[in-house]
Amino acid sequence: MNTFNTIFKKSFLEGYGSVTLGTTQIIIVLGLTCLIGLYIFFCYRLMTRRTFYSKSFNISLVLIAMITAAIILTIQSSIVISLGMVGALSIVRFRTAVKEPMDLAFLFWAISVGIICGAGLTEIAILLSLAATVILFVLDKIPVAKAPMILVVNAECKDGTDKDILEAVKKHARFYTEKSRTITDGRMDLVYELRVKEGAALTGELSALAGVSSVSLLSHDGEVTF
Questions:
Q1: More confident residue, 159 or 154
Q2: Of 131, 151, 177, 197, most Cβ neighbours within 10 A?
Q3: What is the pTM of this model?
Q4: 173: which strand partners?
C-alpha cells in the first residue's frame, strides 16, 4: 500500500511538473503587464475627467495587474505552490465596497490583464484592452436623456399657496411630478421632480410668491426618467 501511494504521488507530481521560468521571461511578462496597466491608468483618468477621480484607486489598478501576473507566474512554476497559494488567498477578505460600476469594470479589467499576461497570452491582453477602450469611448459618446432636477419648496400651508406653486411649475417645466408633501406646524415642504430649461426664472418666480420662504433646485445623478 505504501508503495502504491508513493507511486501515485510521484506520477501525479510528474504529470503536473513545474515549469522553469527564466529571469528574462519574468521581467518581460511583468514589464508588458506594467505597460498595459499604465494604459488602463490613463484610460481611467480620461474616463473620470468629469466625475470624482480617485488617484489611489487608479494607481492600485496598475499594481493589481502586476501582482496578478506575478501570482499566475508563481502558480505555473509548481503545482504544490499553486495549491498552497489558493489556500492562502481563500482566507483573504476584502471589506472595501466598490460603489461605482465603472470602477468595478476597470478593476476586473486590471485583474484579467494580469491573468492573461501571466499565462503568456499577451496578445489577448492587448486586444482586450483595445476592444475595451473602443467600447468605453463609443458608449460614452452616445447621448442620453437629461436627468431631471429636484425642486424643494418651503411655504406656509394656506389655501391657494400650493396652487400658485403648481402653476409656476407648470409654466416653466416640461415634465414634473410631485414626489412628496410634508406639512408641519402650519408649513409645508413640497418636493418635485422636473425638467426645466430656465431654473433661475422658476426659482425667482416661486420665491416671489406670498408665503414661500425658501426654494431649492437640485441636480442629481440618479436614474433618468424617460
A1: 154
A2: 151
A3: 0.61
A4: 196
**CB count, 10 Å around CB of 77?**
15
**99: which 3 cell numbers?**
460603489
pLDDT, tens digit, for every residue of 188-210?
A: 888 888 888 777 888 888 888 88
Q: Which residues contact 4 (CB under 8 A, 6 or more apart)?
A: none
The alpha carbon of 29 is separated from its chain's Cα centroid by a whole number of angstroms, namely 28
* CA distance readout (Å), 52 to 39, 65, 149: 20, 23, 20
| CATH class, range 149-219 | alpha beta
Burial of 139 (0-12, 13-18, 19+ CB in 10 A): exposed
Split at pLDDT 50, 70, 90, the class of 82 is: low
What is the spatial distance between Cα 148 and Cα 113, in angstroms, rounded to a whole number?
Answer: 38
Q: Mean of the pLDDT values across residues 126-142?
A: 89
Residue 139 near residue 47, CB atoms below 8 Å: no
Burial of 40 (0-12, 13-18, 19+ CB in 10 A): buried
